[in-house]
Specification:
By secondary structure, this protein is α/β, with parallel strands linked by helices. Helix content is 38%, strand content 9%. It contains 13 helices and six strands. It has a six-stranded parallel β-sheet with strand order 1-2-3-4-5-6. Helix 7 links the parallel strand 4 and strand 5. The longest helix is centred in the middle third of the chain and has 18 residues. The C terminus is likely disordered.
């Protein structure tokens, strides 16, 4: 891990760790099933998709373990930001857990969204106490105010960006409908589709910095590419999905107002080399021979 961090730092890249809490935690639950809410524990393999995956918020020993893990993260990652998740937390485990229900009553929390925010605030205090800044996914703020000046990674949709800005947070725009590069580029192609079709023109035409009333600001953009899709489809598909879309995405984040530019992509026809005839594997079915690689 330190070799990766050093390799990135030499190229002026900061690696930001994510310790995704309280959901997306099936991996740690396989080793430590005691972190889950009470009841039968299912630790069977799930091919990468979590089933039982939420830390019990009412178990005090869990926060002691989380604090030790954050200490280890701080020892390895020298950067200013530690991402602590907060996304896609299914409520069922907390709703049926006596310890979590008792905690919610004690803290005056109306629902599990509020419990998720409470959880992230408690972890945020740990991060702040170590001189780092917390980052979270946008759902972490759905249940109330976040107290430790976190950066909001807004991914669900454009409205999540606007909501975080209006609440006064610093925001990294990672809107899935524009910046997720494992989505299909057309309806007939390979890839995921839950975020819609994300093609080159759509990414380039999006303005990542909406003008809204509030004290927040967009401090960056983030493109997403989840590696399970690369493992399914191969290296050729990875390259096809990322280049040139990632290049246009980079310009989108660096040039003010670029998303408002009308018309075709400047210079696109000159700079996108045609696919060599001998490299049919670099094209997806349905692409013309002149398609980009």
């Amino acid at each position: 891990m330190r070799a990766v961090i050093d390799h990135a730092a030499f190229r002026n890249i900061e690696v930001i760790p994510e310790f995704d809490l309280p959901g997306h935690s099936r991996a740690v639950a396989r080793l430590h099933p005691e972190i889950l809410c009470g009841g039968p524990v299912d630790t069977a393999s799930s091919a990468g998709y979590d089933l039982r995956k939420v830390w019990c918020a009412g178990r005090e020993e869990n926060f002691e373990m989380i604090e030790r893990i954050i200490d280890e993260i701080c020892a390895v990652f020298p950067g200013a930001i530690i991402h602590t998740g907060g996304d896609e937390v299914p409520p069922e485990q907390w709703e049926t857990c006596p310890d979590c229900r008792a905690l919610m009553k004690r803290e005056g929390l109306e629902d599990t969204a509020a419990l998720n925010t409470w959880f992230e605030n408690r972890v945020g205090r740990m991060v702040a106490d170590r001189g780092r800044r917390q980052a979270v996914w946008n759902e972490a703020a759905d249940g109330g105010a976040l107290e430790y000046d976190p950066v909001i990674w807004a991914w669900e949709n454009h409205e999540s960006v606007v909501k975080a800005l209006r609440a006064g947070y610093d925001v990294v725009n990672m809107t899935s409908q524009y910046y997720y590069f494992d989505m299909k580029q057309s309806a007939s192609e390979v890839g995921l589709a839950w975020g819609g079709i994300v093609d080159l023109t759509k990414t380039y035409g999006y303005d990542p910095e909406p003008e809204v009333q509030g004290g927040g600001r967009v401090i960056g953009v983030n493109g997403g590419f989840w590696t399970e899709t690369f493992l399914w489809n191969g290296e050729w598909w990875r390259d096809y999905q990322l280049f040139p879309p990632a290049l246009r995405f980079g310009r989108n984040g660096m040039v003010a107002g670029v998303g408002k530019e009308p018309g075709r992509l400047p210079g696109a026809s000159r700079r996108l080399a045609p696919c060599p005839a001998g490299r049919a594997g670099s094209r997806l079915p349905g692409r013309s021979r002149g398609g980009y690689t």
